[in-house]
């Protein structure tokens, strides 16, 4: 963590800003994906640094959704399950997501929320490792992960052993043969810190455990490679860096080698080997389709498919390169312009996902004051100002602009206003 330092004097701000702004413009001009922001719709003049919560609207999505509603639903009616490929959309869209997380086709389905997929995976993993009762998990994980793990543990009689990512090797060494599952996120939703998926997966495998990854903050921001890492199970949202839209369905990955053994607890008819046999006996599909549950949110799935179409000609490595460049400049700009707010995570962009967080006892007021200046970040309790970069829409000029706005907020004491006293649920 970077130590807190003195605030720049009146002259330091602009002096430090000029070279940063010049470099931002150079980087934006040299950026191979500089055309990408033009494929998204954002309000004019807004500096949107919250795509790690809800990604911007891709320009093609409104027409795709209108077509899904008016033509596919309105005219095609029930026949659209076949003629428009609604029935197979979870696998088709799953493969499109899989391309961005290093999953060869046939290992990802999209349909339920991340919370549901997590629950499916916790219980399924415990069933795949009978006789082992321990799940090693990060106590600082996103709350839904912890809540669902706690319920799965009650249901399947599991013991949850807390370990932050850096503590995992020691905990695995201590609990070895008792461990059924290691459950972690690649990117810490608070600090942005990234851990080594391949190394930690290998450590889990060494003791015979499975590894489940929550990639909510990774997909579209990191170059995580599930197949290469040998991961067993993974889940992730699609409404953040993939811009699938509010409530867009999440995805689940099951490595091909586990698909005949994985035994999820929610055995809905869409996961049946022959759903239209209308057989009262459950026979799971013999591939990743068995992770499907019930009827998926088709309109949202089609919106997501259109959003992913925006990235058809872009690779995960290209997105990662742009994200890293943006995050690197954001860290540099924050370090230079607001040194009194320490970084919550590492300064090295290679060790970060798609967002950067700084600590402030007035974090909520800072976030509200930034919003009043047209800079959208978010607050995470108790003391974090989180600024996300989207490889799709954020520019280098945006990140320097956000750091400058933060400097101006602190200089003018705008974060201490009485109107910031009440905390809302979002941002
Ligand atoms: C790491 C992580 N997991 C899960 C979720 C959310 O899951 P759900 O989409 O089910 O609300 C989020 C964000 O909301 C998240 O950051
Ligand atoms: N999923 C969200 C929601 O349903 C409402 C408001 C925000 C969110 C988010 O995505 C929060 C986000 N996962 C986070 O890292 O804090």
What can you tell me about this protein's structure?
By secondary structure, the chain is an alpha/beta fold. The chain folds into 2 domains: 153 residues, Alpha-Beta Complex (Aspartate Aminotransferase, domain 1), CATH 3.90.1150; 248 residues, Aspartate Aminotransferase, domain 2. The protein is built from 13 helices and 14 strands. The radius of gyration is 22 Å and the shape is globular. The N terminus is likely disordered. Bound molecules: pyridoxal-5'-phosphate and (2S)-2-amino-4-(2-amino-3-hydroxyphenyl)-4-oxobutanoic acid. Pyridoxal-5'-phosphate binds next to helix 5 and helix 6.
List keywords for this structure.
13 helices, binds pyridoxal-5'-phosphate, alpha/beta, Kynureninase, Aspartate Aminotransferase, domain 1, PyrdxlP-dep_Trfase_small, single chain, pyridoxal phosphate binding, 427 residues, binds (2S)-2-amino-4-(2-amino-3-hydroxyphenyl)-4-oxobutanoic acid, 7-stranded mixed β-sheet, Aspartate Aminotransferase, domain 2, 2 domains, 3-stranded antiparallel β-sheet, 37% helix
